[in-house]
Amino acid sequence: MAQMVSTSFGPRNQGFQVGPNYGSINTEFHLPPERPESPPAPFAIIPFSRDPDFVNRGDILDQIDQRCSEPAARVALVGLGGVGKSQLAIEYAHRIAAGQPDTWVFWVHAGTQARVEEGFRTIADAVKLPGRNQPKANIRQLVYGWLCNERNGRWILVLDSADDAGVLYGPTGDDICNDRPFATYLPQSQNGSVMITTRDKDLAFRLTGRRHNMIEVGPMAQIDALTLLEKKLGLFPDTDVAADLLREGERKRSRLLEHDAGDLRRDGGASNAILTTWQISFKHVRSKRRSAADLLSLMSFFDRQGIPIWVLSRYGFFTRPTRARFSCIANSYIDDGTDNDIDGGFEDDIAMLRDYCLIAVDEAGDEFEMHGLVQLSTRRWLEAFGQQETFKQQYIERMAASFPTGEYENWATCRGLFAHVQVVLGYRPSGEMIETWAELLYNGGWYAWSQGRYDIAEPMLRKAEEACGKMLGKESLATLSCMSMFARVLNAQGRWEEAEKRFVQVMETFKTEFGVDHPCTLGIMGDLAATFLYQDRLEEAKKLLEQVLEASRIKLGVDHLDTLKSMANLATIYGKQYRWEEAEKLEVQVLEASKIKLGVDHPDTLRSMANLASTFLKQGRWEDAETLFVPVMETFKAKLGADHPDTLTSMANLAFIWKDQGRDTDALALMEACAKAQQRVLGPDHRDTRSSSAIVAKWRS
């Protein structure tokens, strides 16, 4: 066996020898014990300066102060990203620091687990916690213990941007801290308060334990926004100009909201562009629940207020509802007998969107609301990723399947959905969806016409007519239906030559396609006769109406609504020709039949009553006329609204009665109110407006 040789390296290495390794070398370093540090006096750790332009938003700061004054308080500011939650927290923290110098103020950014760990380390250093510099020091436990110790004085901890539940309740992967979630290190000690800012309502509830401790922060009220604008830019000489800046168009708003000018009072890793801030919430929702993000995408195309739950849940997603196409008489929908309500997933989607403050629900729980800028940011995200057209088409299909024709029986449904139809004007789709879009505009225009909202009906029906003409041809039933409805609007606006041109074109085509005595043809002939009547072309109107009336009685029946309409128009002609007895006889027949067919309160029945009352008025039968006009006017107000043209006509007629009864003051006041409303609704150049204004001037003289 060879002899083992030991090699020496001289005095500098004396005691060390090269040889076999008989054990491991202990390399653990033992640090000298920490020197005791004197605990500092309380001070504030607020990483952001105070905003000199801060605008106090109602009583939010008072609410925070009230809740934080309670023992072991927890309060959460909940709202959309960018609405000012952190700014409120900064202001409150500075107020505490200035007004309560014996209170510690700590700030922890809760965007990531690393930032939370960093925040706890900052607290440990600030209060000079013993043992914090040891390699295996459990910083969270040390801070937790210090916060729980009431001898350390009062403190408030701001947990900012706590938007991800996984940061506070997820595993940390830290052996030293036994993998306990960060949330378990937030004490409920009598001497401290925790204030949280978050977008997530569910997380806010988990952290505070009570809905009472959650304060919702919404977008600024206009008066607060104007105040902030003046502080930033100086006093505006014209408040209307400042208000207009707050209501810019969508494209300008997008550019402004995408601008990131930087803000010293925001965390360095957070974007100051509002669109970017809100799209972070959208992306987070999309990663956790795709169906909720899809629902938000669909809702972004509605008008922002009054989004009905039944429209969202009625058919489910990506399901094409069954419906009938254009008709010259009515446009009805087909019930295929299936139940298209979707399962509880819809409620879960809604719950997530509400938790992230992306939507709000009304007190009844059947309508939703979105902030306009949330809608804008969602649509911009869809546009950037090439999905805008997909959800736009889904919206158009859903609305077309939900919004019925403008007939009286559908008014309640139309009234609740009409704002959502109006926005469709700007959503022109491509391809085959154009016909569906035009159909929706047609029904919307029909309803607007029935409500006397001619300025809204006109662009709807014009676009519907143009779209159908290009896609289906000028002589298609859809195009002709749009033309005839558009002509009715032109008639109501006093644009009789334009209306006549369209009615004649539709009538001639219907005669060729359906025949002279077809109900569609007879209906258009009656409309054309009414156009002649408005222009006092009485003989032409009478000749055409008598032809229509005779054919309608044979084809449709004596009490058919189209027959009654022709009878009413013929009675109007008799009245203009001073044939009072013949006019009254027809009007009584129409009124009695309308009561049976439609009911006493139906608008067409009320118009029949108004026509009969007008005949009494022209004969000087004041009492008989007033007996009918007063209930007609009141019912019109209730059914159609105070500004509907039919209501205003009844007001004018009642004013004439009062004038003839010697009630000059009452008559003038009523006629003035009528003329003022007509000028606003119909325009100063409308025949009815000019007539009422002339009467007012005459009665004043």
Automatic annotation (TrEMBL):
Residues 682-701 are annotated as: Disordered. GO terms for molecular function: ADP binding. Residues 70-232 form the NB-ARC domain. Pfam families: NB-ARC, TPR_10, TPR_12. Transmembrane segments: none annotated. PANTHER family: AAA+ ATPASE DOMAIN-CONTAINING PROTEIN-RELATED, ATP/GTP-BINDING PROTEIN-RELATED. This is TPR-like protein. It comes from Parathielavia appendiculata.
